[in-house]
Amino acid sequence: MTTGTSKSALITGVTGQDGSYLAELLLEKGYTVHGLVRRSSSFNTERIDHIYQEPQEAERRLILHHADLSDGVALVNLLRDLRPDEVYNLGAQSHVRVSFDAPLYTGDVTGLGSMRLLEAIRASGVDTRIYQASSSEMFGATPPPQNERTPFHPRSPYGCAKVFAYWSTVNYREAYDMFAVNGILFNHESPRRGETFVTRKITRAVARIQAGLQDRLYLGNLDAVRDWGYAPEYVEAMWRMLQQDAPDDYVVATGVAATVRDFVETSFAAAGLDWSQYVRFDPKYERPSEVDALIGDAGKAEARLGWKPATTWRELAQIMVAADIEQLAAELSGARVRIDR
Ligand code: NDP
Ligand code: GDR
């Protein structure tokens, strides 16, 4: 399936925030990109529409395939047919709060799904490298700063599922000599962030409040501390991990933290608004067990991958507010909304 001498990659979760940025990055590097898309009753490809190519187009380099991380046979068939050089497992039920409502589904897709993919690689006999999207949520209750040697103490079904996937990846590396790596990524955001994660929920609300379309924003725990980075920079780290001579696991983070309250204040201020007039508490958004503080130490990624973050969380908040204001203005004027930010 590779065109010419360039590499090919399979991305699960290609329709998500990270999948869309990674697909762009790999296309720029000359890869043929295969994206796994799950069946939905409505369109779920908005984040990749700007790079989509019709099946009839000659020399297509972005090719979408229907499958699902819950369908192990489909994964074997896909791997056997495509024989990609690299596999990026970004697909997941990725919402921590939702994982308390749908714990078994989250365990199935986010946890077992990873092992299905590893097993599909083994069963199909494809010589490939695999990246597993591991998460700072695995550290959970272990105090910061967190690095590759920090013990895991997950605090949600999502975190537990990611720990399972992490160790499955390590185990397949050790047992079968697979080039399998874990990127332990701390929170990373962008204008493409899902609307129910806290940063995007805030910046979207700022745009709507400024336009007079909304007068309240209901949030949960404002004291949580997070290490927020900029998603396009983080997908570069994923790619670098698969270009190394030997497989290993890496933390990717900025090392700088802020509270949800700080992010709220900065985002509202970016639109000239005083947050305290609009933000209200709703216990509905609290979690049965919370992760209080995540602050990453990405020293290993800097030393070995030459990776360093560039965008601060304050700049990120400003980028996201500006993008949401622009998107809302486009929606209100009936213009086509740009996603290629
Ligand atoms: P998103 O929630 O934006 O994207 C998740 C992707 O997984 C979507 O493409 C979604 O498809 C797909 N997906 C969901 N269920 C299935 C399934 N059953 N089979 C196949 N695909 C499925 O997540 P992000 O882009 O933010 O994150 C990418 C990965 O990185 C995830 O695994 C996440 O857990 C992990 N991660 C994210 C961090 C972050 O801060 N963003 C930090 C650390 C780890 P659809 O579009 O149809 O919903
Ligand atoms: P997180 O991200 O749980 O860290 O997981 P999220 O943005 O959902 O929450 C961050 C913090 O904000 C607090 N919070 C709220 N969260 C949401 N979603 N909605 C609210 O109204 C709200 N009010 C306060 C939360 O309690 C939490 O402390 C993300 C996901 O992308 C995971 O997939 C990924 O693995 C981790 O980041 C690293």
Notes on the structure:
With 341 residues, the chain is an alpha/beta fold. It contains ten helices and 13 strands. It has helices at residues 17-28, 72-82, 96-101, 103-124, 157-176, 198-210, 231-242, 260-270, 299-305, 313-332, and strands at 8-12, 32-37, 62-66, 86-89, 129-135, 179-185, 188-189, 217-219, 225-226, 229-230, 250-252, 258-259, 279-281. It has a seven-stranded parallel sheet, sandwiched between helices. Strands 7-10 form a two-stranded parallel ribbon. The chain has a two-stranded parallel ribbon with strand order 8-13. Helix 1 packs across helix 7 (231-242), helix 6 (198-210) runs parallel beside helix 8 (260-270) and helix 8 crosses helix 10 (313-332). The longest helix is centred in the first third of the chain and has 22 residues, at 103-124. Residues 1-5 have low confidence and may be disordered. Bound molecules: NADPH dihydro-nicotinamide-adenine-dinucleotide phosphate (NDP) and guanosine-5'-diphosphate-rhamnose. The site of guanosine-5'-diphosphate-rhamnose has 22 residues, from helix 3 and helix 6. InterPro entries: GDP_Man_deHydtase, NAD(P)-bd_dom, NAD(P)-bd_dom_sf. It holds the Pfam family GDP_Man_Dehyd.
